[in-house]
Amino acid sequence: MQTGTTRRQLLTAIGMMGGTAALYQAMTTMGHASETQFAGPPNLSGARPGASVLVLGAGLAGMLAAYELTKAGYKVKVLEYQNRAGGRNWSLYGGDTYTELGGATQKVGFADGHYLNPGPWRIPYHHRTLLHYCKAFGVALEPFIQFNHNAFVQTSEAFGGKPVRFREAAADFEGNVAELLGKAINQKALDAELTTEDRSKLMEALRGWGMLDKDMKYKSGLLSSEHRGFERPPGGGVNGAPIPSTVFDFKEVLNSQIWKNMAFFMNHEFQTTMFQPVGGMGMIGKGFAKQVASLITQNAKVTRIMQDKAGVTVTYNDTATGTVTEAKADYCVCTIPLGVLNQIPNNLRAEKKSAIAAVPYSNSVKIGLQMGRRFWEEDDYIYGGHSFTSQDISLVSYPNYKYFTDGPGVLLGAFASGSGAYRLAGMTPEQRIEAALAQGSVFHPGVYRKEYQNGVSVAWSRVPWTMGCCARWNEDTRKEHYQELVALDDRVVLAGEHASYVGCWMEGALLSSLDAITRLHKRALAA
Amino acid sequence: MKIASMALIAVLAAAPAWAQDTAGNGTVKAPAPVTGQQVYQQVCQACHMADAKGGIGAGQIPALAKNAKLEEPSYPVSMILQGRGAMPSLTDILKPAQIAAVVTYIRTNFGNHYKSPVKEADVKAMMGQ
For A78-165, where are the alpha helices, taking DSSP H only? Predict the structure, then answer.
């Protein structure tokens, strides 16, 4: 039966009567949309003639606010500190120059068409807001290879520090767990928990899932090799018969903590399918900027934010000319990262200031390394995905474009956080490259240094326009400050990933922006 | 030395309830910095710079060099324990002995000459331990 049209009409009607919250509720009840709070673009309209909004920051949150508020009829102006729109949505290409706090300047030497995404780099399939606007703004997407069984895992705690394939360690973890649980059932340890029938079903499941033999044993053989890979894979002709691989000592598998990497891929935000824009993550910022470019004033360093009964006044310095300007509007959407905003004089209410001051920022370091040939593909059969390590760099991630080409490739040579990122950030750009080469060589010894051509690093704690990566909320600060942070303060509302529960994701910035401008619009109509 | 007696509640960084983008859940294994200089180079320098002069962009990372606020040792200790603005509390990666060592280091380097050392016990006292 064709029900699509009917359902859509019903949802539209609910949306018109009860707003997006009611629509979301209804969609969830009907088994749709349980993966997102996005219920479609806001369709704001009917702004009072001449009503104006100042948007602070031309990242995704700011540009989306500018786009939707302009459509609603507002006069919008956007102030941006950088000489580039896009914010943390950003790609570095050959010929680009980047200067971090402290003054170190790097000139990017990547070959044509290659890039580093210093900030966001992958998009979950359920980040519907971002995917919606990518489509609307003509940003082409391609798959991001998130889960690669054939990539490596390496830790100083197991296998003598040598890398093993994710597939091997994960299969051995599951096989051993299945065997042990089977033993527990056979030893009647689960008789109280399970009926005879369910025990029998579980035994069947363990045998199939864990690749156990007829005696419920996990051991080296053709069966376990089906999951962990073969010593000699099946072939044709004389030597067609496969030779099984040898399972690892379970103690080593436990020491490797492979379960952490396995659990990582089970996380909702990291499940396949994931996407990336064709040509670099920065294509999204460019796509948004195309819609609102005429509204953006670049090189504008905001130095003061004041509101009164009549409107909002924002003072800014032109960082290129030194000119000081006062911009006035009826309302303000402020997307400035909290660590920066906390230092800008303002007359927001005291509770708001406390909330802004309460949220520290994470650090993170990313390093792009151009290699002369794609040895990870040619020598190791790794096409996209990540090799994980217990060293500071945390991973090496392989590019999801230009597969099988003869030219160079740009690896993500580090995605560090926490103490590892502090260590790398404190280095000079040259020292960071050296550390990335030394550590990444664990996966690709010899060839890693031999093929290295050039590289660039971005340490988020030294990024001049954010002074950090993302807002770091915890349960206590959420409880104490979150509602205040997102609440309207008369004519001013904050938006950005920091004003969301999808922190550190572009989706959070967009959902926050839509929610903020919807409330601001309502406030403006009520005035 | 005159560390203020107020006990600071160290806010431990709890695991985020939502998954921020992260490398892959693995645990980084590296030797912990011991001396004040090591702690400075492996942690503080990420923001405050190798010369401790900080930096200015859209906002400002304060200079620790020639900083008169360091005369009162409880000030830098409380910054590390509690954080401020974008700067997080660092108690999730630094132990009291490391905090004492690095505060002593910054108070006697980078043009600062506040000679009395900060001790591990002083830091613990401020953490209410």
Answer: 128-136
Of B21, B28, B89, the CB nearest to A392: B28
What is the least distance, in Å, from the CA of A486 to any CA of chain B? 17
Residue A87 contacts by C-beta under 8 Å, 6 or more apart in sequence? A57, A58, A59, A60, A61, A62, A285, A335, A465
> Cβ contacts of residue A311 below 8 Å, gap of 6+?
A328, A329, A330, A331, A491
Name the closest residue on chain B to residue A158, using Cα atoms. Answer: B29
Question: In sequence order, what are the residues at sequence separation of 6 or more whose Cβ sits closer than 8 angstroms to the Cβ of residue A443?
Answer: A152, A154, A163, A387, A389, A396
Residue of B nearest to A81 (CA): B58
The answer to whether the beta carbons of residues A451 and A379 sit under 8 Å apart is no
The tens digit of pLDDT for each residue in A164-223 reads 999 999 999 999 999 999 999 999 999 999 999 999 999 999 999 999 999 999 999 999
Per the rule left: phi > 0, alpha: psi between -120 and 50, beta: everything else, A505 is: beta
What is this structure's pTM? Answer: 0.92
Choose the closest CB to B23 out of A155, A394, A462: A394
- Residue B53 to residue A167: CA distance in whole angstroms: 47
pLDDT of residue A420 exceeding 80: yes
Chain segment A121-130, per-residue pLDDT in tens: 999 999 999 9
Half-sphere exposure for A264 (CA within 13 Å, toward CB) = 22
